[in-house]
């Protein structure tokens, strides 16, 4: 290979200190990027910080160096031109590139070769950087404190293998650009520590679920009825289990009855206006079914829809009910029930449900540390149940560790996230949920109410019973 272009090019780079500096920056950062990329491909290093260095910080330095090269050359030429004795030469705007001179030819060839190499490197890095920004690691782990609670809850959900961007951005170029712009704002907010704690919910401008959830979930799917057995433990000495059995009428498809049948029927659209940011108090609901339009309002509270700002009217979609498909934050009682049911906390420990719920609630409400939970629980058993504690120390200690884990999963003091910060809209037990509209108070002009009839959404087969007969009949005795 003919390498005679290298010499003149190096000489050109050395003509002034700006160009020389730029050349060094570019060469060194370029080599480190290539090394990192190779190590990444070989799987030797796999850390979010290395990725950030190789794909974002170093390319910045690389481009900056690249920019310095022509700036230095321009400055050098300007100096030369201004000092030139010949007036004609001083007036020339651009340098004369005479390809008949071997030296000029070699330099030009060198510039073309190096530019090709640089373009290749830049396009590889940009591609890798964009791909990297789509990873769960980037979204969930880079801004530790900020995303930790959502990330932890996500890992624990049925969507833990779905990438953050599949729900938060979805496919297509316009949303890609929007997400990068808002991402830039978020990076600035994190850098200068101006972000809100806790991160406000509902997420404004979340992409409509047709473009996210419905990439995987087919809305026409028919689910039918689903039997749900819910086990709650009482706050008595023996933590008595009580069972509730629901037949949830999920429906779907072409069926008339059922939750999905009505709410995700493609021929119906539901719009609403909320009075508060949390979308809990609903002032106005409109249902469009072809040409037929029905509006529901609260008695005596008329809403002047035309005078509202655009954006105040929201079209209901999957996320109005499934607002916690992956970041599920539990309340103390729910979390305790789940852990006792799954055996991570022994039901034989006296008053464990009551003690757990009380201590979790109090420490959480004052945004205390997980260690506080551990100390208070241990102290409670040592003082009030000392015999049990000494004979069953292992079981109590295991429960203490599990309750500490519940606390860590659901409370994040540094994000000011605690019990109930993120309400769940499915159901109506702990948060208004379905009853935001289904309260038998929203009324249409022809006097129809959005019903709260207990059998509309589910049949209650048993409600807080110790030994529900229905479970025996269904062969589901547990
Ligand atoms: C299955 C879809 C889905 C996935 C996957 C997902 N999210 Fe979310 N996320 C949501 C929905 C839905 C909301 C709440 C929307 C609302 O109530 O307005 C949300 C809310 C959030 C919020 C706002 C605070 C809150 O809890 O309401 C943050 C921050 C967040 N997600 C981060 C992430 C990160 C980081 C990942 C990846 C580790 C991720 N999300 C993955 C659907 C998803
Ligand atoms: C990339 C594909 C994908 C996307 C996007 C997605 N899901 Fe899912 N979802 C799944 C899979 C797969 C399961 C089944 C997981 C299992 O059973 O363990 C599931 C399960 C569910 C379930 C039932 C299990 C549960 O946790 O209650 C609900 C409800 C659900 N998804 C709602 C949503 C909503 C709402 C969105 C949009 C915010 C969404 N999904 C986005 C793939 C996806
Ligand atoms: C009106 C509220 C509402 C809307 C809107 C809604 N769902 Fe549901 N969905 C429910 C309820 C309630 C359940 C039952 C929850 C349970 O099993 O605990 C459910 C169950 C599910 C399940 C689990 C079904 C199973 O086999 O267990 C999936 C998946 C799901 N919904 C996806 C969606 C998707 C996708 C959308 C949007 C196209 C959507 N839902 C819109 C209320 C809703
Ligand atoms: C934003 C308001 C709103 C919310 C929130 C809401 N719904 Fe509805 N829902 C309606 C309206 C409006 C109707 C139609 C009422 C009518 O025409 O009788 C309806 C109808 C239904 C129906 C059909 C009733 C029938 O008579 O056949 C079911 C089932 C249902 N909703 C379930 C749910 C469930 C479950 C939830 C919570 C997970 C929920 N809805 C949350 C507004 C809402
Ligand atoms: C608009 C639909 C709707 C109506 C009306 C409705 N429910 Fe529910 N209910 C739900 C949904 C959805 C769940 C949550 C199921 C789950 O856990 O996923 C639920 C859960 C429950 C539970 C179990 C709570 C728990 O977690 O222990 C009980 C009990 C219950 N409902 C009682 C009632 C009673 C009583 C009425 C009548 C006043 C009623 N429901 C009306 C939708 C409805």
Describe this structure in words.
With 478 residues, the chain is α+β, with helices and mostly antiparallel strands. It has 4 domains: 6-133; 137-195, no CATH class; 222-325 and 427-473, no CATH class; 332-415. The chain is built from 17 helices and 8 strands. The strands form 2 sheets. The chain has a 5-stranded antiparallel sheet, with no helix packed on it. A 3-stranded antiparallel sheet has the order 1-2-8. 22% of the residues are buried. The mean pLDDT is 90. It binds heme C (HEC) (5 copies).
Key phrases:
five-stranded antiparallel β-sheet; three-stranded antiparallel β-sheet; 8 strands; 17 helices; alpha+beta; 478 residues; binds heme C
- Level of helix content? 40-55%
Our measurement of the CA-to-CA distance between the termini, rounded to an integer number of angstroms, reads 79 Å
Poorly predicted runs of 5 or more residues? none
Bound molecules: heme C
Spell the H/E element sequence: HHHHHHHHHEEHEEEEHHHHHHEEH
- Count of spatially separate domains: 4
The whole-number mean of residue pLDDT values reads 90
- % residues in beta strands: 5-15%
The rounded Rg comes to 32 Å
Total beta-strand segments: 8
Biggest β-sheet, characterized? 5 strands, antiparallel
